[in-house]
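pasting for ref. prot 1 ->
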Amino acid sequence: MIQSKRLITTISVISSAGLSALKFIVGIATGSLGLIAEGAHSLLDLFSTLITFVVVRVSALPPDENHPYGHERAESLGALGGMVLLAVTAIWILYHSISKIIWYPGAPEVTVWSFAIIIISLLVDFWRVRSLNEAAAHYNSPSLASDAEHFSNDLLGSLAVLAGLFVIFLSRYIALPIWLVNRIDAIAALGVAFAALKSFWNIGSQAVRSLMDNIPKELIPGLNKLIEEQKGVIPDTVKTKIRYVGNIPYAEVVIGINRELNFEKVHQLTDQIEKVLTKELGTDAVIIIHPEPKAAADEPYAVTVHAIADRLGLKIHNLHVYLVEQKIWLELDMEVSGQLNLAQAHVASEKLEKAIIKEFKSPVHIKVHLEPLNEKPYPAQIDYELKNEIQKITQSIDKDVILEDVLTTGYGIVLTLTLPLPDEMALVEVHSAMSAIERKIRAQVLDVAKIHIDPEPMSRQVAKGRTFNH
């Protein structure tokens, strides 16, 4: 069972305080530098655990205006602070151990209490290491991992002190070299110091990497590869940044997308990428995806022109692209405000032409037809009498054509027709059929401004009970 971070740190504080006091008392009473070093180490563990006790509570605070990413990094700061204290204590133990080995050798008194306190310390540290490691892995907590590292090295230090005490105790019954007996306790204290320095390096470097947003080198290339595999993402345009705040990954992704994709398609693409990243980073991941329209290597000319016009805030239609003697010819209609005069409208036209020429890599010939923008609804009326007259003309052209409406406006007549055609007819042929009918109508009906032809599969009309001549 994984215990809560608060419960583990509370128990750890109490046990560190008790063990530190007992080790100091027995160490001073017996003159054992090894026990005193263990006491100092345990006292440091007490301070480190108190730091953990505080930072665990701080890290649990929700994000606020000043800390939009939350407070999880308090644990890394706490771990770093504990490591600094550990390094200071290790240096102090090293100094006294070396002094005793070189200048002040001497064996301490060994009693049953010496062994008892070390054995109790080993049992308590074993429990703490196991509990803290389980909790650190479960909560991905740097501060709990720091404490676990402390106490795992405490185990090594305690074993070294226990071995030294055993050698001194054994020297009562077996003749051992006096130089070893007088220095073994200080040598055991050296073991405690080196174990502390090892903890300092391991956990300290881990805390620094966390604060410096260090991540595995292979993480971003692997994620970029997965993102580029999604249809619609242009290769070599993906840029990903990831940082971890506590156990929560924050990912920022920039992707290049085909400019022909509409907003709905882009939204579907970013949703798909988010699912891919969530699968890799976990459900807690916070992911921001920024799509940027880019020109693909095989982008059609029409897509390029529409993208340029959209970027400039211009509206175009009736775009036709021709290849004339290995040169691209563009003809298009551009809508401009009816409030502009010719000179003003031509400025917008030239702006579009220059942007197209700049982006096209091959020579291009451009012709722009200016049309006043329909900024307000045009007044129009349904003319039933005129409809009857024009219907005779459309029936003479093609008996299957359905004349839906005839509108009279200030700028001419607007016709709306439905043209039933075979379901299997190719779209190119459909367009040719509509164009042919439009030309014939314009040849016989004067003052026609617009002709809207809606091609409809014959099966739809058959379902309504109609029959056809072709």
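and prot 2 ->
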Amino acid sequence: MSTPDGWDLTGKKAVISADRRGWTKFFSSALAEAGADVAIIGSENSDMEEAGNKASGYGRKVITQTTNLMSKTSIDKSIQSINDDFGTIDILVNNAKVNFGKRFEEVTESEFDNLMDFNLKSMFLTCQSVGRTMLKNKRGHIVNMT
């Protein structure tokens, strides 16, 4: 993968919320290759560690931090720690999401509620926490994946 002209992220600091389907590896590697330092937050059973190891191959600083993405307290603690370590946060990629894992017509109302609760709440809480840092710095970019 090569970085297109105009996409140099040297010196930028990015946070990615991890999933379980391989997208975290793609995003973290792309950001690191473009020059950004990368922090990956997510559950222990996400692809966070594998993604972090791959992104480290680009010579950028990489942090992985186990975070409960359904807990405001856990997210705020992780984001504060990352901000303290990096000095700022310039980019957030909200990538954490769950899917049904079965045919749509077989999904129960309870399963739908759980999916919506995780996908929306984790995105909201992460945007809110990182957004506070970006507002203080008067800059930043957020990408929400659905």
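The chain is about 45% helix and 15% strand.
The longest strand covers residues 37-42.
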